[in-house]
């Protein structure tokens, strides 16, 4: 009986000792998680806080926007209606959409066949052409701005966005390079099986490569769309003297100059410019992340 009593007394005593040990283990796990993700959290805050500041300032009154307050005392969603009333942002939005969508479509139509030829077709001089593509990536665009402007001026296309759109239909070195890397990730056995079934190069590209590299193509398209959407130098160079052809980035700079004291309206216009790209990234983030992870798997 004494032995049984001792065992019975010890059993309940072991439970309180497990509780503090479990709590210490949970705290250690939490601290380990914070230590591992602290850099990512800090970088995330660095990117998010300016966007939050812009969004909050867009809802402030014009007087409060000039103060050090970070939170609106009263919300003014009418600032966004005022932005559209004082500037033809819908026209500029249409110009930006035309520029970005046509440039992205032209990039895909020209770069996908070129990348397929460099990645999967065997022909003499392929490596030399690939080195030329890489060299073209190294040339700063500002170096070519003067001769290209003279070319488009002789074609009477300055004052429009076509000098920015048409080059994407002629090849884009950066897109060709990344698409080639995506195409190299597809095993050769799939292409051999397609050729055994009687597919030529075009059908192999359309039926095999494009479906299997869809995340990579989505990532490249998102890259091109975001670059053209945020492009300021190109529209300023070719369409700066024609307000009817302005994009949102160019119009935002002009709007800031006209309303430099009314920071609430300037921030509201900034939110209008950023919102389409943010929504696009949120909707396509899975394909974007998958496409980035696929890049460079094989060389």
Question: Helix and strand layout, with pairings?
Answer:
Elements: H1 2-58, H2 78-86, H3 89-120, H4 126-138, H5 141-154, H6 162-165, H7 173-184, H8 188-196, H9 201-212, H10 214-230, H11 233-239, H12 248-258, H13 263-283, H14 285-294
Characterization of the model:
The protein is mainly alpha-helical and 299 residues long. It folds into two domains: 2-58; 80-294, MetI-like (MetI-like fold, Orthogonal Bundle), CATH 1.10.3720.10. It contains 14 helices and no strands. The longest helix has 57 residues, at 2-58. The protein is flat.
In short:
The protein is mainly alpha-helical and 299 residues long.
Tell me the domain tally. 2
Pick out the low-confidence regions: 1-11
**Count of helical regions:** 14
What is the CATH architecture term of the largest domain? Orthogonal Bundle
Q: Gap between N and C termini, in Å?
A: 76 Å
Q: What's the SSE pattern?
A: HHHHHHHHHHHHHH
Strand proportion? under 5%
| CATH C-level class of the largest domain | Mainly Alpha
CATH topology-level name of the largest domain = MetI-like fold
Q: Tell me the total number of β-strands.
A: 0
Helix content: over 70%
What would you call the shape? flat
- The assembly state of the depicted protein chains is single chain
Please identify which CATH superfamily of the largest domain we are dealing with. Answer: MetI-like
